[in-house]
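Task card 7
Instruction: Convert sequence to structure tokens.
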Amino acid sequence: NALLKILHHEKITMENPAVDEIIYKIFPSFGSYVRAVKKLKTYFGKKHFTIEEVKEILANSSECNPSQLAEFLFANNRTDFFKEFSKLTPESPDADKLFLILLSKLLEKNNEIRKAKILLQSFRNKDDESEFFKLMGMEAYSPARKKFVRARMVREVEIFNDKAISFLYDSLIEMNFKFKASSLKDKGNFFFLQKMEKLFLILSESR
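Output:
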């Protein structure tokens, strides 16, 4: 793992959840990991870091964070979503790769919500929770993480109705195809922004 090699080279240690936070939240490239680690060292002036410290640094990052964008979208947080997305410009390092990762993250999350919507209806009782986590591929999660993830999914399922899920799925497939097939890239991300504005409108109508 590139991040672990960087931490070893820099003689830095951190809590396991903090390592997971960086891997999950940061664009997976050697350069991105190096910048995050150097920012931690400069900001805190030490060599061991907690999950809270990592979260503080990532929240103030100038780089667009696809995982954070997905969280904002599925929480129906329009303001923070567009604020975070504004960090992604044609001049951003690895802009094209970052955009494709974003599309992939959103599609993965959308499919997860579609699946959770069905399973939450089927396994409503506390006795059925083990089967729910098994089918969601979360069997290995700690009890605390299971509780947190399930509660978040319940909220997301309430926010995203079938119309929103279908619209986002169709939009992501269309944008992915256009991006890969066309030599005329959407450099200003206008098509993407238009689709997201429409999605937030659908979400506001379903309240």
